[in-house]
Here is the input.
Amino acid sequence: MASSGNSPKILVTGGAGFIGSHTVVALVEAGFEPVIVDNFDNSQKSALDGLRAILGRDVICYDADCNDAPTMEAIFRDESFRGVIHFAAHKAVGESVAKPLKYYRNNLDSLMLLLDLMPKYNVPNLVFSSSCTVYGQPERLPVTEETPRRPAQSPYGNTKAISEDIIRDVVQANTPIKALALRYFNPVGAHPSALIGELPLGVPANLVPYLMQTAAGIRQNLTVHGNDYNTPDGTCIRDYIHVMDLAEAHVQAVNVLSKSSDERSYDVLNIGTGHGETVLHIIKTFEEATGVSLRYTIGPRRPGDVEQVYADVTKAQTVLGWTARRSLAESLRDAWRWQKKLSSNVVES
Here is the structure.
């Protein structure tokens, strides 16, 4: 897939990460020219090899920190961006509790630097990576964009809420920026080629990566944290979205912002499938989709776990003309194909 000199350039901060790398693929397929900025603090340079294999060419990538003002200014000066997709952030919930200032400095300062540089270099469009964590445990389901935000359970979650507020306030101050904050639910899966996917550092905190590592024999057993919740089978419910569906939502967000005649605007959108799945249903679907039996036990509830949360995605469908297309079984098959490739690489090395 050849690079086009006329393709609009989109800055993708954290573009070598899990969601970022898949969004880079979706951007190229949609006719954009992504430019990655990543310091590889929470990603690996092998993702660039995967992108090259999928796309048939290299992607422009700056090995840089989004908080490095002189470097970021030079990148904005040298490249002519049509928009920015901002993924780059520290994201380990537990670490954020132990090191809150690290999270506030990194996650908020990098956003504010972008908001300074965008109007200076006439970059109008911003897509921000937010999270459904801003809702906490909602009183009513499904969650809409009008559902009240609740106090964050971690400094990481709080950086997402504060970042939304910063963008809103900057736009309201007559800054010529059009922004959409996408509140993700639970991204899972991998590119169907198994050339890029999720690379959790250490012991995964999320269900699906831990499940995959258990199926691969890396973890001895998967613990289901509680089976006495007020749900159909007693286990927690989440809204799991294939990472490629999520990536395509970002592309649609860029398209919508680019076509908008507004000089400035800000809005938030839920990005999920619109329905929830229990932990036990995830396990059963994985086993049926892959033919692999999973070792798991039922353990006590985990403090801080939300009982159930899933999205109302009507607004995203209306505003973006987008809907999640891939099934849970497809998500889990793609994640498993990626995990098997990772495991085989470890054995070979």
Remarks:
- The mean pLDDT is 95.
- The radius of gyration is 20 Å.
- Residues 121 and 276 are 42 Å apart (CA to CA).
